[in-house]
TrEMBL record:
InterPro entries: DNA/RNA_pol_sf, RT_dom. Residues 1-239 form the Reverse transcriptase domain. CDD domains: RT_nLTR_like. This is Reverse transcriptase domain-containing protein.
């Protein structure tokens, strides 16, 4: 509520160089698009570009309360709101807790004199407002880099930028090397007034298309030089000139697989595991996809990597006893309402991410130069966000159904969209529909595995409501092993041993037209002990004529 009041009374209080917390701005995508456009333009046109990455030590915990109060007053925030914030900050305190002789002991309350709390919507806004004087100084002291792309376009002109903030991540761009030491000194001076301190060991500097002058620079001795083969992690992605796709993908995959393994091998129910995977693991991959504006190599290579990741997850499901290795693959990705597991596919999410990125870059006025550069690279048969997007359209047979109009609108089939979100949703809905139909078709193509969704009229059986029959798997309040065994029974793929006395066996009965029958001589799996909520189980389980 306080954050909304500040934004309402003070207006757009953040400088345009701050891409976080601005209404309508997709922060990280916006920052990556501008950053990679600057670097790509410099390497493509052989223009000198010098860059400085700046890291602050404990930035959120160090910013002074005085600087926050000062910027609030200067921004025109009403005095009652400022007094309320002043009281809130003065009441902040912490305690240190520990154990002594088996008892919990606490220190006296310690007043918090610096920093902002984290975990709410107000603190990031206060922090970004407090560090805005750094942008004011850099605007005066650093000559901006001007792109060659768009220089001959009368309506837009070239892109000019000398620095970019995303929360406490700062990157400086200039075409003059002399401005880099000047920028460093200016940042150190202003940051010191705000209670912040640079961390030189985590900063970096590099030059593109220009001779290295870094060793002789006065005041830059403590800043590491980023070599041609070195990388800096900026906004969660390893980069030098552009994003290093290989390093980014390797790191993200390792973390994603570790998280997926922790989720799938836990004691959670099936639905909890699937929701955890879809809501925790998949977003990691989607963020990695969104960082790539001008990728290296081919888009099909990224597709192969996502398919390999999906395959590794399926092997993990088999290890976690959620499926058998030979069970129907397509059913895993079918919507849970239709009898599937509802697991998200990395390959499909790659397409959705490319769609959203392209719609944002294509419709955002501040990103017209990045869009022009993407189009220029595509016309030269080089990879860019636009070429990736058209690959997605081709894969989904939408080449002639999605167009960007000159007035910065996107036409999808018979409708026109003016905002990135609505346009991306429209395209993604079509893409998801194609994936859903394909997987359902693949499931139905398996004669035995698809018997559970076959028409109830086959075999003169009674009418069965598929929606009600799949409520148990849709809810998913069962263990992984229960789901695996039930699905394997439905699909006629339950592994058995040769002797009925061992466990059980399955056979196919064409007359029933459903799953194979179970040998009820197995004491562990006798019919009265089976408790599965499904209207088809009486038809699916029949005693055999052999013992």
């Amino acid at each position: 509520m306080i954050a909304q009041q500040i934004q309402r009374t003070a207006g757009d209080v953040l400088p345009q160089e701050h891409v976080a917390l601005r209404k309508g701005i997709w922060g990280c995508i916006h920052a990556h698009a501008l950053d990679q456009t600057i670097c790509k333009d410099a390497t493509r046109r052989n223009k000198a570009l010098h860059m400085l990455w700046v890291d602050m030590t404990k930035a959120f915990d160090s910013v002074s309360h005085g600087s926050i109060k000062w910027i609030l007053a200067r921004s025109g925030v009403p005095s009652p709101t400022r007094r309320l914030l002043s009281v809130i900050m003065s009441k902040q305190s912490v305690r240190y807790c520990g154990h002594q002789n088996g008892k919990l002991v606490k220190s006296k309350p310690l007043d918090v004199k610096r920093g902002v709390m984290q975990g709410d919507t107000l603190s990031p806004l206060l922090f970004c407002m407090a560090i805005s004087p750094i942008s004011s100084v850099l605007r005066i002291t650093v000559s901006p880099y001007r792109t060659a792309t768009g220089a001959l376009t009368p309506n837009s002109g070239p892109l000019e930028i000398n620095h970019q903030f995303y929360m406490d991540d700062l990157k400086v761009y200039t075409s003059r090397w002399e401005d880099i030491p000047t920028a460093k000194l200016a940042i150190e001076k202003v940051a010191g007034e705000l209670g912040l301190k640079m961390n030189p060991s985590k900063c970096a500097v590099t030059s593109l298309c220009a001779p290295q002058q870094l060793t002789s620079a006065i005041g830059m001795e403590d800043i590491p030089v980023l070599g041609s083969s070195s990388l800096y992690k900026y906004l969660g992605a390893e980069q030098n000139a552009l994003i290093s796709t290989d390093h980014l993908w390797t790191r993200i995959i390792e973390k994603a697989e570790t998280t997926a393994r922790r989720i799938m091998l836990s004691d959670l129910t099936v639905r909890q595991k699937v929701n955890g995977y879809n809501q925790v693991v998949i977003p990691k991959l989607k963020y990695a996809f969104s960082c790539i504006i001008y990728g290296t190599g081919k888009f099909c290579t990224m597709r192969k990597r996502t398919r390999a990741f999906d395959e590794s997850i399926r092997k993990l499901l088999a290890e976690a006893k959620m499926r058998y290795g030979h069970s129907c693959v397509a059913r895993l990705y079918v919507n849970k309402e239709d009898g599937g597991l509802g697991l998200k596919s990395a390959e499909e999410e790659l397409e959705h991410t490319v769609v959203y990125n392209w719609c944002y870059v294509a419709l955002r006025p501040e990103l017209q130069i990045p869009y022009q550069l993407c189009e220029s690279l595509r016309s030269s048969n080089k990879r860019s966000l636009t070429s990736d997007f058209y690959s997605v359209l081709t894969e989904n047979q939408l080449e002639n159904e999605v167009t960007r109009l000159p007035e910065a609108t996107i036409h999808v089939r018979d409708r026109t969209y003016t905002t990135a979100t609505t346009a991306a949703r429209a395209i993604s809905t079509i893409v998801h529909g194609r994936w859903a139909r394909t997987r359902l078709h693949e499931w139905k193509q398996r004669e035995v595995a698809s018997r559970v969704i076959a028409d109830s009229e086959i075999g003169n059986g009674p009418y069965v409501c598929l929606k009600d029959s799949f409520l148990w798997s849709q809810t998913g309040w069962v263990s992984s092993e229960v789901l695996r065994n039930v699905w394997a029974t439905q699909e006629g793929s339950l592994p058995t041993k040769g002797s009925a006395a061992e466990l059980l066996r399955t056979i196919t009965i064409p007359r029933v037209g459903m799953v194979a029958s179970m040998d009820l001589s197995c004491a562990y799996l006798q019919l009265p002990k089976l408790s599965v909520t499904s209207t088809r189980w009486p038809d699916m389980l029949t005693p055999t004529d052999e013992s």
